[in-house]
Specification:
This protein is α/β, with parallel strands linked by helices. The chain has 28 helices and 41 strands. The strands form twelve sheets. The protein has a nine-stranded mixed β-sheet, covered by helices on one side. Strands 34-38-35-37-36-41 form a six-stranded mixed beta barrel. A four-stranded parallel β-sheet has the order 15-14-13-21, sandwiched between helices. The protein is globular, with a radius of gyration of 28 Å.
Length: 1020
């Protein structure tokens, strides 16, 4: 059967996958057609023997003995969905990937955990009421990313650079030699001596002048990616064994501002929790800067839930975004709405909504008047807030922004009690013993501590902040008509506790923290926390890496206690440093500092490389990267730092552990291979989406092609760190490293020593799971793992752990997520309308305190100057943003299936702007920001806010196969397809108000600013 151009276009139309994208995008549609028509352009999809057959009449299942169906975790993006990997037994090749029917991220509803594998197949078939009604799905990226298993540009053996950093020349070396060189150091590359990691383990102070910096161990930074199920192992080595405080995940380059905003509202800057809507019962969902069908986390789960709720008429979705996404759907009629907005101005819209709600009283006053835990019990509330708590309100007073302590008025009050005004009597009372409502609005003086103190309630402070701008001013800032702001606020309020607001990547601009805090406060005003149809923290997970029912994988003899200032200057007040004290002692103004300090921030990965290259507050001796690519992923990093990164005098030793030669790996001294996709172990849990417990597991469903250790294990992150820890004589690895529940000691010599025990903890948490059946052991391919399980675990454990592996994890029934009108898993701390930690923190660039509640902050530089003051609209008429693709991700580049559909990322402008500039789809333009410029092919479409240039993330690579490399004298040619398109991060900016090297970041928490950048485009 031949395929014609018309057939392909008809298929695209029927699928509807490109309903918005297709309009006016003929060049890309043409490329899809050509990729389909021309042999070799896209991978073949051979007709495969089915994994099973099901008798439609009887339901009898016959499994194919030549295949097995393994449960695993997809790492095509950060959602870590559950997948079922179909593998050919004879060749060990992955044939297909689909959703795991047991997993709540993949199946709506999932198959019962107790059902055997054959039963799960039966329920997916056409027998009785199965089939599509019980389907389990993987997204387009999850289906296609398996191409990465056979990617010709994979790193398969340890590599050592030959010649200068970044030259693209490498030589293979053994794992043993690599470990020896990086642990002992020496003149490794003929460029002068390099300190090995062993030299950092002396316990000596890093800097005697500044003892707060901690020990020399802090001169190693370990930078890794997201929670893919293996992060705890890396943390065990870096923090627990080596003892460095400089351990950072990807948050600073992806979502930190959002997490920080929720942390402020939830009052926890340690764990950084966040909220997600109860999608099953939410009636009005306001999604800001993140479209459920395009991005967010877990994006496929929320997309499916939201689509079903809209289709059934249970939910209305409003997406606020500069770009029209796939979340808007005509088939949902008025149950979906797109609100276009200027980039970086979501905070103005939300503060306008808050003003409207507070002024009109359209808030949950009963909830907000509940001042403490006893009142919550008496008033039947599932949570409580500090809306009624009194705050010192004299801006000139040293305690401004601090809550008034009850002990200053009531000596017998508890240490942490705060003052409120009883609603009925108007008298002061401790918040924690109050049993009734308190006043939520107050400004005046109260008698405490022997004097009259100016005070306001937390909600009064929020009202005052909201009133600092008129609705007209908020409207002018964000580009949303004033009437629409009013209507949006009124509609949100009309749904009470079943309205929910959420945000994500759209807050990655320099005012993102306060935007996210304001969004979170919408939920507080609705009183929806812990409520059915409102918001929750998610159901959590079963015990795994912490102290568990069988093993303690969190603690070990000799475990280090990292201490000192982090290189990123996060979580430590500048006012406690030697630098501050000495400046004060010598009469100098301690402000501004060379670069910002972030006293309440968390994991600011975006500050590590600029700070290391700049040497402030100190220099690194070594940096280990694992499963992260900040050189590509951090906006503005490579614009100014390319030469610095290649200079070994800046960071003398750089090692990257990755399955691919990423942009970051290409600039390192050594590259260590890693397992990819379905080749390794992992225990992960999704973000706060599912409301019942979800724990996902992965195991080596297929053998990785990388080099092996003498024990026969793959050379990967785990085996590398085990070898390195043993060479450095670090605790927590080797014989006797893991303690069981009875005090017995077990080795940590191989990856399965760690992961099998974590899965055993999972299997025995609460009520233990049953033992795996012989049928499921064979059908899932776990018979290949049986010997390993028996070696590591005792008889009473291994078959139960195998049961968890066979299901791809352990999953609580979804109906356990609710208890009547409440969520089962609840956030217990108070909601923070006013956050004292934030209010008392000082911006080290200005010496002024931060605001303690949500506010509208225009994107600006670290000391508050708006971006547009330096780069006015007259010269920079566009605002650049990064958008997320449904298919492509930065790590998925190279998938032939994905490139066949999207060979080049979209750079989109509005039809209005295109007409003004004389642009048509397919024209080449020069996109320029104050930080850089790049050529791109433009797309013209109506679903873009005027004045916006939207760049699809994941394209425009200069490594990952996009550049030729030489390994052991053998050249690997470049793939032009992998370099196609524009990487928006190459257009990122520096902050001119900082000294030395920098990338533009959030003023309060430092997260990388990749959105709302001044830009202009010129037709070429």
């Amino acid at each position: 059967m031949s395929i014609t151009r018309r057939d392909v276009l008809k298929g695209l139309g029927a699928a509807g996958a490109l309903s918005v994208f297709a309009a006016g995008y003929e060049p890309v549609l043409e490329s899809i057609v050509q990729a389909t028509l021309k042999p070799g352009k896209a991978p073949a999809s051979p007709s495969l023997a089915p994994e099973a057959t099901v008798d439609k009449a009887t339901g009898q299942v016959t499994l194919n003995p030549d295949q097995y169906l393994a449960g695993s975790i997809c790492v095509g993006c950060t959602s870590v969905c559950g997948v079922r990997v179909r593998v050919d037994r004879k060749t060990g090749r992955v044939l297909r990937v689909s959703g795991n029917p047991y997993h709540p991220l993949a199946a709506q509803p999932p198959v019962a955990y107790e059902a055997g594998l054959a039963e799960s197949v039966r329920q997916l078939s056409g027998h009785q009421e199965g089939g599509l009604a019980r389907r389990a799905t993987a997204c387009g990226r999850g289906n296609a990313v398996l191409d990465k298993l056979t990617d010709p540009y994979r790193v398969l053996t340890p590599l050592r650079r030959v010649g200068p950093r970044g030259s693209g020349k490498w030589e293979p070396i053994s794992l043993e030699r690599l470990v020896e060189e990086i642990s002992q150091g020496g003149d490794l590359f003929g460029e002068g001596p390099v300190d090995g990691l062993a030299s950092l383990l002396t316990g000596e102070p890093l800097n005697t002048w500044a003892p707060e910096f901690g020990s020399k161990a802090n001169q190693l930074a370990f930078i890794f990616g997201y929670a893919n199920g293996r992060m705890h192992f890396a943390q065990r080595f870096a923090a627990g064994a080596f003892g460095t405080v400089n351990v950072a995940n990807h948050q600073g380059n992806c979502g930190l501002s959002m997490r920080a905003g929720y942390a402020a509202m939830l009052g926890d800057f340690q764990e950084y929790p966040h909220l997600k809507p109860d999608y099953d019962h939410c009636e009005f969902y306001l999604s800001i800067g993140s479209a459920p069908a395009n991005a967010g986390n877990p994006f496929m789960y929320q997309a499916a839930k939201v689509a079903q709720a809209r289709a059934e008429g249970r939910m209305k979705l409003v997406v606020v975004d500069p770009v029209l996404t796939n979340s808007d759907n005509r088939s949902c009629s008025d149950r979906t709405r797109w609100v276009p907005i200027r980039p970086g101005t979501d905070g103005a819209l939300v503060m306008g909504m808050i003003r409207r709600m507070l002024e009109t009283g359209k808030i949950n006053t009963a909830y907000l008047a509940c001042p403490g835990p006893e009142a919550a019990k008496a008033m039947g509330e599932a949570s409580w807030s500090n809306a009624a708590h009194l705050v010192s309100a004299d801006p000139a007073a040293p305690d401004f922004g601090r809550f008034l302590r009850a002990r200053d008025r009531f000596p017998d009050a508890s240490e942490n009690a705060l003052l409120v005004l009883d609603e009925a009597t108007g008298q002061l009372a401790p918040h924690d013993t109050a049993t009734g409502p308190a006043r939520i609005y107050f400004k005046g003086r109260v008698e405490t501590g022997g004097k009259a103190v100016p005070a306001k309630t937390a909600l009064q402070l929020l009202l005052d902040e909201a009133l600092s701008h008129t609705l007209a001013e908020y409207s002018q800032a964000c580009g949303v008509p004033e009437a629409d702001i009013i209507a949006l606020a009124d509609e949100f309020a009309s749904h009470g506790r079943r309205a929910a607001a959420d945000c994500h990547g759209g807050t990655m601009h320099s005012g993102g923290f306060y935007t996210a805090y304001a969004v979170a406060l919408l939920n507080a005003l609705a009183g929806n926390l812990n409520r059915k149809g409102g918001t929750g923290i998610g159901g959590g997970k079963f015990k795994d890496f912490g102290p568990g029912p069988r093993y303690d994988l969190a603690n070990f003899q000799g475990k280090a206690k990292p201490g000192g200032v982090r290189l990123s200057r996060q979580g430590f007040p500048y006012e406690k440093t030697t630098e501050y004290r000495r400046k004060k002692e010598t009469g100098q103004n301690p402000y501004p500092t060379r670069a910002p300090w972030y006293p309440f921030s968390n994991s600011v990965q975006s500050e590590y490389l600029p700070s290391a290259l700049d040497g402030y507050p100190y220099r690194l001796k070594a940096c280990l990267f694992w499963a992260t690519n900040p050189v590509y992923g951090q906006a503005g990093l490579m614009n100014s730092f390319a030469k610095d990164m290649a200079d070994p005098r800046r960071i003398p030793l750089m090692v990257c552990v990755d399955a691919f030669m990423t942009e970051t790996a290409a600039l390192c001294d050594y590259v260590v291979p890693d397992v990819a996709l379905y080749e390794g172990y992992g225990c992960a849990t999704p973000w706060a989406g599912p409301l019942a417990k979800v724990s996902s597991v992965a195991w080596p469903c297929v053998a990785p092609p990388v080099a092996q250790t003498p024990q026969g294990d793959p050379v990967c992150m785990e085996t590398f760190l085990i070898a390195l820890a043993k060479r450095l004589n670090l605790p927590g690895f080797g014989p006797g490293a893991i303690k069981d529940k009875n005090g017995g000691l077990h080795p940590l010599e191989r990856p399965e020593d760690w992961y099998h025990r974590a899965v055993a903890n999972m299997a025995f948490d609460a009520t233990p799971v049953p033992e795996v059946t012989p049928e499921d052991l064979a059908a899932t391919g776990l018979d290949r793992l049986e010997e390993s399980l028996r070696r590591v675990l005792p008889p009473e454990e291994w078959a139960r752990a195998a049961q968890v592996y066979s299901r791809g994890g352990r999953f609580e029934p979804v109906d356990k997520g609710w208890q009547g009108d409440l969520l089962a898993a609840r956030w217990e701390k108070p909601v923070q309308i006013w956050n004292e930690t934030v209010a008392r923190a000082v911006n080290s660039m200005t010496g002024k305190r931060f605001k303690g509640t949500g506010t509208w902050m225009e994107p600006g530089f670290c000391q508050g100057t708006p971006l547009r003051e330096l780069y006015p609209l007259e010269k920079w008429p566009f605002s650049l943003i990064s958008t997320k693709s449904q298919l492509m991700a930065a790590g998925a580049v190279g998938s032939k299936r994905l490139h066949a559909i999207r060979p080049e990322g979209e750079v989109a402008v509005s039809a209005t702007d295109a007409e003004r500039l004389g642009l048509s789809t397919g024209d080449m333009v020069l996109v320029e920001t104050p930080g850089g410029s790049a050529r791109a092919r433009v797309t013209v479409r109506r679903g873009v806010m005027e004045g916006v240039v939207a760049v699809e993330h994941g394209y425009g690579h200069w490594a990952l196969g996009a550049r030729a490399v030489e390994i052991g004298g053998e050249a690997k040619p470049a793939s032009p397809l992998r370099g196609a398109g524009l990487a928006s991060n190459m257009l990122g900016m520096e902050d001119p108000f900082r000294k030395g090297r920098s990338t533009l970041g959030d003023v309060a928490v430092g997260s990388n600013a990749r959105n709302a950048l001044p830009a202009r485009i010129v037709k070429i």
